[in-house]
Design brief:
The complex is a heterodimer of chains A (80) and B (318). With 80 residues, chain A is mainly alpha-helical. Chain A has a single domain, classed as ACP-like (Non-ribosomal Peptide Synthetase Peptidyl Carrier Protein, Chain A). Chain A contains four helices and no strands. In chain A, α1 (3-14) packs across α2 (35-48). The longest helix of chain A is centred in the middle third of the chain and has 14 residues, at 35-48. Chain A starts with a helix and ends in a 6-residue tail after the last helix. The model of chain A has no long low-confidence stretch (mean pLDDT 94). In chain B, 33% of the residues lie in helices and 29% in strands. In chain B, β9 (192-197) and β10 form a beta hairpin. Chain B is globular and about 55 Å long. Chain B folds into two domains: 2-172, Thiolase/Chalcone synthase (Peroxisomal Thiolase, Chain A, domain 1, 3-Layer(aba) Sandwich), CATH 3.40.47.10; 177-317, Peroxisomal Thiolase, Chain A, domain 1 (3-Layer(aba) Sandwich). The mean pLDDT of chain B is 93. In chain B, the strands form four sheets. Chain B has a five-stranded mixed β-sheet with strand order 1-7-6-4-5, with helices on both faces. A four-stranded mixed β-sheet of chain B has the order 8-13-12-11, with helices on both faces. The chains are: A mainly alpha (80), B alpha/beta (318). At the A-B interface, α2 of A face α2, α7 and α8 of B.
Chain lengths: 80, 318
């Protein structure tokens, strides 16, 4: 997965315009990113990684796009 | 020698709420409402009335089984699986046995487990049938969590129903049980719990970390299913029926996909009754048998998971 693919995935999960999602986006700055929106991100990530993302419990506590990227990079899911 | 499931009865809380009505208090946009419904997947929630509780629903469920079946009281056992006893101590088992008019010689066992509990109850019942004089056991599984649900927590308020099931199992030469698989997550075990509500110091609210619980189901349950199938040299496509604990629509959909089930191999009651806790598997089996049938030799897999975080799966040959 690339960073751009992660941004698109989060935008799709939150059902917002892709332009609204950048590495600086925090959950508190988007109404759509509530507990349900966060669950949507986890579901989409699980699908996109063939179930691998459900092994990473840190993703549940992530509260920004950069948090997601850092965790997924550490786990070798994001390649760039 | 082992157990066979003979009959299932269940009772739901008598107050029926439409989820669309209940959700109005959350002022959801139509998009958010649709999204929530896609995740939860139920239209109705059943709640106990003031006069109902775990014991009263259990008495009704057991009463249905006693009326419909030939019961050998001298070799009967009752196993209660719940986290909704009237008091912390004592558990309700003996009181329910007495209200049902069953003799004090009846074996009674209380087990403190939640949504995975029905599978554990079957394992315990199977062991007693193999190792004692018990010939019939009623496995009572159910929870009435709504008392403890915080009305501002939409993810649980719009999901859980109060329900209790009673499943009659009997000793047979040819057991239905082919094998079990059990396990749990001892690190995230508090991700479903009763926690103190800071605004009401004396009360305990039902708490669920939806993200962690979703991850737990996705990593643990497909593996549990695969283990019990592998140990019994069975392939997923050979299963006639698979019933998962009715956790939520999103958990069921993702599990069905991960385990690679055909639509015809699955059934659900989440859409009718919501998440009915430890009663959900027997309720779903009972509903399935109302409209479909299982033939001798059909392979059935049941898998429960939840508070603990614990899970259990069983492979049955009907």
């Amino acid at each position: 997965m690339t960073t751009e693919e992660l941004l698109n995935l989060i935008a799709k999960a939150l059902k917002v315009d892709a332009k609204k999602i950048t590495l600086d986006t925090k959950s508190e700055s988007l109404d759509e990113w509530d507990s349900l929106g966060h669950l949507n991100i986890l579901v989409q990530l699980d699908k996109a990684t063939g179930g691998k993302a459900s092994e990473f419990s840190e993703l549940v506590e992530a509260n920004s796009v950069s948090d997601f990227k850092s965790i997924l990079k550490l786990k070798n899911v994001i390649s760039d | 020698m082992g157990l066979c499931i003979l009959d299932v009865a269940y009772e739901l809380g008598s107050k029926v709420h439409s989820v669309s009505e209940l959700s109005k208090k959350f002022n959801l946009t139509s998009d958010k409402y649709d999204d929530l419904m896609n995740k939860i997947g139920t239209s109705y929630i059943y709640e106990n009335s003031e006069s109902e509780n775990f014991a009263s629903l259990a008495v009704k469920s057991i009463g249905v089984l006693l009326a419909k079946n030939v019961i050998h009281k001298e070799n009967l056992g009752l196993i209660f699986i719940t986290q909704s006893n009237s008091k912390i101590l004592p558990a309700d088992g003996q009181r329910i046995r007495s209200i049902c008019g069953l003799p004090d010689s009846v074996f009674v066992l209380d087990i403190n487990m939640g949504c995975s509990g029905f599978i554990y109850g079957l394992a315990v019942a199977n062991s007693f049938i193999q190792s004692s004089s018990l010939k019939q056991i009623i496995v009572v599984a159910g929870d009435t969590y709504r008392n403890n649900i915080n009305p501002i927590d939409r993810s649980t308020f719009l999901l859980f129903s109060d329900a209790v099931s009673a499943t009659l199992v009997e000793s047979k030469e040819n057991s239905q049980i082919l094998g079990f698989d059990f396990g749990g997550d001892g690190i995230n075990f508090e991700d479903i719990s009763l926690a103190k509500n800071s605004s009401k110091a004396s009360s305990l609210d039902f708490y669920m970390n939806g993200g962690k619980v979703f991850q737990f189901t996705q990593k643990s349950i497909p593996n549990s299913v695969n283990r019990v199938l592998t140990r019994n040299s069975t392939k997923i496509e050979e299963l006639k029926l698979v019933i998962f604990h009715q956790a939520s629509r999103i958990v069921l959909d993702t599990l069905n996909e991960k385990v690679a089930l055909n639509y015809s191999q699955t059934t659900e009651t989440i859409s009718k009754f919501g998440n009915t806790g430890s009663a959900s598997i027997p309720i779903t089996l009972s509903e399935y048998l109302k409209f479909s049938s299982l033939e001798q030799g059909d392979l059935v897999l049941l898998s429960g998971f939840g508070i603990g975080l614990s899970f259990g799966s069983v492979l049955l040959k009907w």
